[in-house]
């Protein structure tokens, strides 16, 4: 009996098992952002949450409809746009790697949908941490 085919089969099974999607633990990485990044993340988050005009419950999270026109202009005098939404999502993904993000633009980008989703427990986490309720 040759051992190579068995070893190869076991290696393939192990590799396939390793690629199976496993639930990311719901653990925030408090060390993922430096002080400057944390400050920017918090400021962006507060501003974006003030632009939420609708919250929709999804099977695995929430969709936030944002009206960026409600935000006026940024520190440079430029209208808020999807770039700030993406910056917040980037920073949030560093400290909460278990979240999945989706950004959808409607019209000329003034209406943005931000999807926050993930594995088991993410919906409850979002509801608690961000105070989300479908409206």
Please characterize this protein's 3D structure.
The chain is built from four helices and four strands. It has 135 residues and is α+β, with helices and mostly antiparallel strands. It has one domain. It has a four-stranded antiparallel β-sheet with strand order 1-2-4-3, covered by helices on one side. Helix 2 packs across helix 3. The longest helix has 17 residues. The chain is globular, with a radius of gyration of 20 Å. The termini are far apart. The N terminus is likely disordered.
Instruction: Find the count of extended strands (DSSP E, 2+ residues).
Output: 4
Going across the biggest sheet, name each strand in turn.
Answer: 1-2-4-3
The helix-and-strand class reads: alpha+beta
Number of domains: 1
Low-pLDDT stretches are 1-21
Number of helices: 4
Coarse shape: globular
Average pLDDT level:
81
Strand content: 15-25%
State the distance separating the first and last CA atoms. 65 Å
Spell the H/E element sequence.
HHEEHEEH
Helicity range of the residues? 40-55%
Structural Rg: 20 Å
Largest sheet: 4 strands, antiparallel
Task: Give a summary of the structure in a few sentences.
This protein is of the alpha+beta class.
List key phrases describing it.
alpha+beta; disordered N terminus; globular; 4-stranded antiparallel sheet; 135 residues; single chain
Question: Helix and strand layout, with pairings?
Answer:
Elements: H1 3-19, H2 35-49, E1 52-58, E2 61-67, H3 82-95, E3 99-106, E4 111-118, H4 122-129
Helix pairs in contact: 2-3
């Amino acid at each position: 009996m040759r051992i190579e085919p068995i070893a190869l089969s076991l290696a393939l099974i192990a590799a396939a098992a390793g690629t199976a999607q496993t639930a990311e633990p719901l653990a925030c990485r408090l060390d993922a952002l430096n002080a400057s990044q944390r400050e920017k993340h918090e400021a962006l988050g507060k501003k974006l949450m003030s632009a939420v005009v609708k919250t929709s419950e999804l099977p695995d999270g929430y969709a936030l409809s944002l009206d960026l026109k409600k935000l006026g202009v940024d520190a440079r005098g430029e209208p808020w746009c999807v770039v700030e939404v993406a910056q917040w999502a980037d920073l949030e993904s560093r400290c909460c790697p278990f979240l999945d993000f989706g950004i959808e633009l409607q019209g000329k980008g003034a209406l943005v949908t931000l999807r926050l989703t993930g594995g088991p427990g993410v919906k409850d986490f979002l509801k608690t941490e961000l105070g989300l309720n479908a409206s």
